[in-house]
Amino acid sequence: MVKSRSAKFGDWIVVFICIILILVCLLPVLNIAARSLSSADALIKNEVLLWPKGWNLDAYKTVLGDKKYTWSLTWTAILTVICTIWSLFMTILCAYPLIYDLKGKRFFVALILFTMYFNAGTIPMYLLLKELHLLNNPLVLIIPNCLSVFYVIILRSFLYTIPDSLRESAEIDGAGPLRILFNVYLPLSTPVLATLALFYAVGRWNGFSDALMFMNDRKYYPIQLLLYNILNSINSIEVATQEGFTTPGLSETIKAATVMFATVPILFVYPWLQRYFISGVTLGAVKG
After folding, report:
1. Where are the strands (E) in 196-287, listed by range?
2. Considering the entire predicted model, what is its pTM?
């Protein structure tokens, strides 16, 4: 089939629009990067837009030379890996039994969906975690948000698309539910698992509200909460003192460098999972 000139022209229009959208999405990142590499004088005079002026790496030397930043980044990376693995385990553990015809299945599905729309709120959650002795405990950053009902539904819907004949063949050969899970379902679920892993990882990396409410030990502050305190330090003498700064406020270059320091690492995860992500987010979009 040969495309007409109008069809080719339409394809080029779509490509052009996509490029424009990508550039628009990148503008904030480019602006922050330019500010982090610019001199303080250029920022004071508001001369920096999308390209650094008065190149200066002192901000990155300050950030990378401070153990507070490097440990927070290391701890956040460890926390992200642990939370992603644990969340995937819990998601599989919840979604896999729901594809079987079990007694009371509808009740459990309704109960799970109920938690998706209704929750007790922050204060009951705080009281519950206090009774469980999880406050100011690193586990408070792992356990409470380890499972997303929405992701459970996504995984369950994908498992339904795998032919029942594969499971029945495995059962005829004497395989049990666990063996069927590891030998049949999980190998065929790589795209959706990679997509969910990316969502879980980004959510944990960008999360700071749970640490802000339930964690007092500054040693276990994730990088986003540290960044939150730094950006607020310009208006708060108390926060600035807690962060170890002798004067309230930071230079714009250090703030921009801190933002890049907290943003860039998670961006490297996407290219590694891109081939799975593309197929994962389009699951069920086309039949046949």
Report:
1. none
2. 0.79
Give pLDDT tens digits for 187-199: 888 888 988 998 8
Of 40, 56, 72, the residue at which a domain comes to its end is 56
Identify the domain containing residue 159 by its residue range. Answer: 57-281
Distance (Å, rounded) from C-alpha 274 to C-alpha 213?
34
Q: How far apart are CA 41 and CA 76, in angstroms?
A: 33
**Does residue 261 lie within any of the structural domains?**
yes
pLDDT tens-digit profile of 87-106?
999 999 999 998 888 888 88
Asked whether residue 265 carries a pLDDT value surpassing 70, the answer given is yes
**8 Å CB contact between 232 and 40:** no
Among 5-9, 28-32, 34-38, 157-161, the minimum mean pLDDT is found in 5-9
CA angle 55, 61, 67 (to 5 degrees): 160
The span from the CA of 246 to the CA of 148, in Å, is 42
DSSP letters, 122-164, are HHHHHHHHHHTT-TTSGGGGTSTTS--HHHHHHHHHHHHHS-H
